Amino acid sequence: MSKYIGSVEERLGKAIARERAALGLTQEELAQAIGVQQETISRFERGAVLPPLQRLIQLADVFDIPLDSLVRGTTNRAVDDGLEITMNLKKLNPESREFVRRWVIEMCEQLGRKR
Description:
The chain is mainly α and about 120 residues long. The protein is built from seven helices and no strands.
């Protein structure tokens, strides 16, 4: 059983803020993209309000990530870590992806030996 870090609202808010910042968007720009007020985005990011499903779908579309990746947030499951890494790898060119892939494998092997 996985343990989630923080409440659903907090995790989702942090994920929204992280994805927004990764795209270099302001809260106002994101609000315009999904048709809400800037204060709504602020409430989402603070974890004060849980976005309705339709807004979550819009946010995932704007961020160009799978909905489940946005909703899951941070867990201690390796499969979720792998999905997060995969989404970031998609942003790289093939040469950079290969470099990161080799580095991750090497680091996992080295750290696995230290157990």
